[in-house]
Amino acid sequence: MKLFIETLGAIIIGIGVLIALFYLIKGLIPPQVESYNKIRLVLARYLALALEFQLGADILSTAIAPSWDQIGKLGAIAVIRTALNFFLAQEMKEERRAEQEPPQDRSLVPDPKEKKNPPLA
Questions:
Q1: Residue 84 CB: number of other CB atoms within 10 A?
Q2: How far apart are CA 40 and CA 92, in angstroms?
Q3: Distance in angstroms (rounded) separating the CA atoms of residues 54 and 23
Q4: Confidence of residue 23 (pLDDT cuts 50, 70, 90)
Q5: Three-state SS at 30
Q6: Which domain of life does the UniProt lineage start with (predicted)?
Q7: Spatial distance between the Cα atoms of 60 and 47, rounded to a whole number of angstroms
Q8: Domain segments of the chain as ranges
Q9: Which of 36, 45, 65, 87 is most buried by its number of CB atoms within 10 A?
Q10: CB-based contacts of 51, cutoff 8 Å, min separation 6
């Protein structure tokens, strides 16, 4: 059962890589990609899902007659994978928020249409 769930997690990662690669190639053929954030978000979603499956497989393998050594290893693995998943989710949330905000002009040249404040006397 553990092997099946781990294989499922690996398949999910493979599917995510293929879909992200498809979007990358689709965006590069006529160079139209302004930002690779959408591609990163697609891959991040699949990685987060695969991490959940991998953690589930580890929990399942430890649920059957665990030793203290196995419980310790599971705890360490769970903490690492949960931290990875947390930071991945945070980055996905930041990227979604950045996509929804209008682009800001970060040029150093002032806009001539912009009104200047009169100097104080």
A1: 14
A2: 8
A3: 26
A4: confident
A5: coil
A6: Bacteria
A7: 20
A8: 2-99
A9: 45
A10: 9, 81, 84, 85, 88
**Token pair in block for residue 13:** 């990662």
58 contact partners, CB below 8 Å, separation of at least 6: 2, 74, 77, 78
25-81 pLDDT, tens digit per residue, is 888 887 776 767 788 888 888 988 888 888 888 888 777 767 888 888 888 888 888
In three-state secondary structure terms, 36 is coil
Return the structure tokens found at 10: 């690996």
Whole-number Å distance between alpha carbons of 103 and 21: 26
Residue carrying structure tokens 């980055």: 91
- How does DSSP assign 56-108, residue by residue? HHHHHHHHSS--HHHHHHHHHHHHHHHHHHHHHHHHHHHHHHHHHSPPPP--S
